[in-house]
């Protein structure tokens, strides 16, 4: 399988950008678990600004899809982005976060069967069952490691478990909304042609006013960031809040991640896309376990292996199928 230079560059961007973005996000969450809304708002603002300059050309570029058609796509994209970054407030671990989000094939198959009337091979149904069982195993054993679970304080433990269940429910909800968003996007592209760069810009620009509804939360965590631990920049000798440095790193690497995934899906075959994104998720998971010393038992490893092997089986990776373009604008 020969890979073009542009495809190789996209692969490097996905591995570096997405993995680094995950590391910066975990560093942020370790310092402030409730920072999710601030992170999401910063990501949206930066990508919208970049799109305004390079995609919209300061409003001079002609739009291929009307704002009215974008409305539902924008609403779903905003909801999934906020949920995925806010669930850390509910004591959901980064490792479980990665594993559940790795189960998007389950929601894709369910909605594809119901809405698009797609039919799948037996091998793909088996792979989705593997992924489902793997996620269940990881979720169950993660619930047993919540703070206070082994203590005698039943009241505190019950409150922690219910709070954690809310976070897991939000993650699963975001998973299904994201899959429906992919279907909506596919239908839009059928009508208007593929315009992923434009969609990337408007799905980040149009939801910005909605962050005003969260201004109290965002302002609170911005204040906490400014008042927190500082880091003195080498050579300059200027002390900068550590959280703001991590936030800047997350925003820049997230932009590299999204841009690289877009390039990957337009330059490479679906086989390459599946392999690289699966590899990226596995690298992030292992790094999170080793570097951040997150709890991870043999049962978590079993569940993770089932999720990743099921993903590769679903895409027929062992059979090395022919090339097929994947849909762009996937939030990895």
TrEMBL record:
<feature type="transmembrane region" description="Helical">
    <location>
        <begin position="70"/>
        <end position="88"/>
    </location>
</feature>
<comment type="similarity">
    <text>Belongs to the nucleotide-sugar transporter family. SLC35B subfamily.</text>
</comment>
<keyword id="KW-0762">Sugar transport</keyword>
<keyword id="KW-1133">Transmembrane helix</keyword>
<feature type="transmembrane region" description="Helical">
    <location>
        <begin position="94"/>
        <end position="116"/>
    </location>
</feature>
<protein>
    <submittedName>
        <fullName>UDP-xylose and UDP-N-acetylglucosamine transporter</fullName>
    </submittedName>
</protein>
<feature type="transmembrane region" description="Helical">
    <location>
        <begin position="298"/>
        <end position="315"/>
    </location>
</feature>
<feature type="transmembrane region" description="Helical">
    <location>
        <begin position="125"/>
        <end position="142"/>
    </location>
</feature>
<dbReference type="GO" id="GO:0005789">
    <property type="term" value="C:endoplasmic reticulum membrane"/>
</dbReference>
<keyword id="KW-0813">Transport</keyword>
<feature type="transmembrane region" description="Helical">
    <location>
        <begin position="7"/>
        <end position="29"/>
    </location>
</feature>
<keyword id="KW-0472">Membrane</keyword>
<dbReference type="GO" id="GO:0005464">
    <property type="term" value="F:UDP-xylose transmembrane transporter activity"/>
</dbReference>
<feature type="transmembrane region" description="Helical">
    <location>
        <begin position="35"/>
        <end position="58"/>
    </location>
</feature>
<feature type="transmembrane region" description="Helical">
    <location>
        <begin position="273"/>
        <end position="292"/>
    </location>
</feature>
<dbReference type="GO" id="GO:0005462">
    <property type="term" value="F:UDP-N-acetylglucosamine transmembrane transporter activity"/>
</dbReference>
<feature type="transmembrane region" description="Helical">
    <location>
        <begin position="162"/>
        <end position="183"/>
    </location>
</feature>
<dbReference type="InterPro" id="IPR013657">
    <property type="entry name" value="SCL35B1-4/HUT1"/>
</dbReference>
<feature type="transmembrane region" description="Helical">
    <location>
        <begin position="233"/>
        <end position="252"/>
    </location>
</feature>
<dbReference type="GO" id="GO:0000139">
    <property type="term" value="C:Golgi membrane"/>
</dbReference>
<dbReference type="Pfam" id="PF08449">
    <property type="entry name" value="UAA"/>
</dbReference>
<keyword id="KW-0812">Transmembrane</keyword>
<dbReference type="InterPro" id="IPR037185">
    <property type="entry name" value="EmrE-like"/>
</dbReference>
């Amino acid at each position: 399988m020969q890979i073009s230079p542009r495809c190789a560059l996209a692969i490097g961007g996905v591995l570096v950008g997405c993995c680094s973005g995950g590391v910066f996000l975990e560093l942020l969450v370790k310092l402030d678990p409730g920072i999710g809304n601030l992170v999401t708002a910063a990501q949206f603002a930066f990508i919208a600004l970049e799109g305004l300059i390079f995609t919209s050309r300061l409003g001079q570029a002609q739009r291929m899809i009307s704002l009215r058609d974008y409305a539902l796509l924008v609403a779903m994209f905003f909801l999934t982005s906020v949920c995925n970054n806010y669930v850390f407030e509910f004591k959901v671990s980064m490792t479980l976060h990665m594993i559940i989000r790795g189960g998007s094939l389950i929601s894709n198959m369910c909605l594809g069967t119901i809405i698009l009337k797609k039919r799948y091979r037996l091998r793909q149904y088996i792979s989705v069952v593997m992924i489902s069982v793997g996620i269940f195993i990881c979720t169950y054993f993660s619930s047993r490691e919540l703070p206070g679970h082994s203590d005698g304080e039943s009241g505190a433990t019950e409150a922690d478990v219910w709070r954690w269940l809310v976070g897991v429910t939000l993650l699963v909800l975001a998973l299904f909304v994201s899959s429906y968003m992919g279907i909506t996007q596919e239908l839009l592209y059928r009508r208007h042609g593929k315009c992923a760069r434009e969609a990337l810009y408007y799905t980040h620009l149009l939801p910005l006013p909605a962050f005003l509804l969260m201004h109290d939360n965002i302002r609170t965590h911005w204040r906490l960031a400014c008042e927190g631990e500082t880091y003195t920049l080498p050579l300059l000798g200027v002390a900068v809040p550590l959280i703001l440095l991590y936030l800047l790193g997350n925003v820049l690497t997230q932009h590299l991640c999204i841009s690289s995934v877009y390039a990957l899906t337009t330059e490479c075959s679906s086989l390459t896309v599946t392999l690289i994104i699966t590899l990226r998720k596995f690298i992030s998971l292992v790094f999170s376990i080793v570097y951040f010393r997150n709890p991870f038992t043999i049962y978590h490893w079993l569940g993770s292996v089932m999720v990743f092997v099921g993903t590769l089986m679903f895409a027929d990776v062992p059979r090395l199928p022919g090339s097929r373009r994947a849909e762009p604008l996937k939030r990895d």
